[in-house]
Amino acid sequence: MTAQPEPNSFRTGADERGRFGIYGGRFVAETLMPLILDLEKAYAEAKDDPSFLAEMRAHQTHYIGRPSPLYFAERLTEHLGGAKVYLKREELNHTGSHKVNNVLGQILLARRMGKKRIIAETGAGQHGVATATLCARFGLECVVFMGAVDVARQAPNVFRMKMLGATVVPVQSGAKTLKDAMNEALRDWVTNVADTFYCIGTVAGPHPYPTIVRDLQSVIGDETKAQMQEAEGRLPDSLFACVGGGSNAIGLFHPFLDDRSVEIFGVEAAGFGLDKLNAASIAGGQPGVLHGNRTYLLMDKDGQIEEGHSISAGLDYPGIGPEHAWLNDVGRVTYLSATDEEAVEAFQVLSKLEGIIPALESAHAIAKVLEHAPKRPKDHLMVVNLSGRGDKDVPQMADRLGMPL
Amino acid sequence: MPFTDPMADGPAIQAGGLRALKGGETLEKTLHLVRDFRAHDADTPIILMGYYNPIYIFGVERFLAEAKDAGVDGLIVVDLPPEEDDELCLPALSQGIAFIRLATPTTDDARLPAVLKNTAGFVYYVSVTGVTGVATPDFNVVASAVSRLKRHTSLPVAVGFGVKTPEHAAAIAAGADGVVVGSALVEAVRQSLDGEGRATPGTVKAVTDLVSALAAGVRRGRAAA
């Protein structure tokens, strides 16, 4: 894409049309338009309501366990011999990933709007588990759409959701993975308009979802800023986070976008390699329209959406949040990519050096830290978002490393 | 115009789209179909229906020029609400191609003028909240919705989503100006295919028989009204 003019601030989007530059928007069927306009209005009121924010903060503290630590990874830093590496420990949240930050806010919003039935899409199952958890906590009906292929390969998370009282619907349409789960959730929403709230798991979908999810995940970056100030007395020099749809990344990045000294790196999943099957929408895709927004998408020359591939089910989505698409085009964030193989290596390095088993998603970000930290001076402060824990990936990794359980 | 991810469509159209894509269908070929049809029929209106991405990737300007040239009269693009009119609706209208909007049970009186504003050709009323070809509409509710629409527009009102039988068509035709049937026809095609998904000698007849029966239902509905 041609470069777009640099704005005075990178933090003002989305605009009144729900756009970040040319990206975002509201590309939905008419049946859903009144619903997303209602949601926009309800969110605008809630986010400025001190009682809503106070309730959310209380649950963040006592239910999720926030703030999550900003941890100095001493042995990893010694091993790499360059930048001082900090891990933002989102994997310590209740349910094991950053997903719960967003779900908590959306569920409180759903309650405020009087919606009794919650639907969600999920790929690896982390967002589904977080949604099922909060629905159990607040006594709401929960229906999770999950591609039939993912249901088969993520059995532990399917069981967790069922234990939590959710109904898991295996989606048989299309390619039977995350994008089809999202299609099916949208079809459910269009059918059950009166009582249903669609809790989207990432910074994608029609406006206002990318903005809502970003705001709810920005607690990651806000805490990081304060914690780094306390630890080092200044801003970090660089940030790294993995990007599928991109919610953990935007949550870390957004509070730093106008701090120009901070270099920011998103890491897409390069799968088998950028010249082979991958899930890197920016590196391998082009702007198009899917799931309510315009963004970079993997597609063929006729505009038909293609399946991505990543070892990590959570990054296996053929699109990326529209704000990331814009941040790429304006040059504020640099998007790199890590292959399956690099992620597997990083998964093992972090486990052995720090005693922390990362999610395969987060391992993509760690992989780029392994590459970049050695090239930076010892006073360079590098933060990587450890967005989830790797317990869910243990069976898959055991197979891959030739140690079947 | 088939698309991999038809978010407003039910199982019949989803499967139909995937069959078409598997068979190598492209937007280019769809426009060729229109040209071939127009070679021996200059009068029957042709409306192309689908989703925005394949058009966006083809190029809006190029698509409209070729569609106009091929003889397309109107477009129904499900994922372009009035809020996105500058994408395709306004360029289409300036080319003389009608952009047919969907009005739905969730479109209230406050929103209706915005939905009708740049609509041309006819208004397509979606009879149910839901996807195509699944639920059967409540015909009394549809009749009052059509009356409501007619208070806001002088355009013809056609009703679709969930219309499967001649009896359904008759019930709707009593109040509306047109009846839209998609999934039932696509399903009739599917049932006529051979094991490899190819058309058989019975395919055309399966479709024309159903269309004749639906049309007879419409005439009955009109006469009774």
General description of the model:
Chain A: This is Tryptophan synthase beta chain. Chain A: GO terms for molecular function: tryptophan synthase activity. Chain A: Pathway: Amino-acid biosynthesis; L-tryptophan biosynthesis; L-tryptophan from chorismate: step 5/5. Chain A: Its cofactor is pyridoxal 5'-phosphate. Chain A: Its EC number is 4.2.1.20. By secondary structure, chain A is an alpha/beta fold. Helices cover 42% and strands 18% of the residues of chain A. In chain A, the strands form three sheets. Chain A has a six-stranded mixed β-sheet with strand order 3-4-14-9-10-13, with helices on both faces. In chain A, β9, α11 and β10 form a beta-alpha-beta unit. In chain A, α3 crosses α14 and α9 packs across α11. The longest helix of chain A has 15 residues. Chain A starts with 18 loop residues before the first strand and ends in a 5-residue tail after the last helix. In chain A, 61% of the residues are buried. The mean pLDDT of chain A is 95. In chain B, the strands form two sheets. A four-stranded parallel β-sheet of chain B has the order 4-5-6-7. The model of chain B has no long low-confidence stretch (mean pLDDT 95). Chain B has 225 residues and is α/β, with parallel strands linked by helices. Chain B contains ten helices and seven strands. The radius of gyration of chain B is 17 Å and the shape is globular. Helices cover 49% and strands 10% of the residues of chain B. Chain B has two domains: 99 residues, Aldolase class I (TIM Barrel, Alpha-Beta Barrel); 126 residues, Aldolase class I (TIM Barrel), CATH 3.20.20.70. Classes of the chains: A alpha/beta (405), B alpha/beta (225).
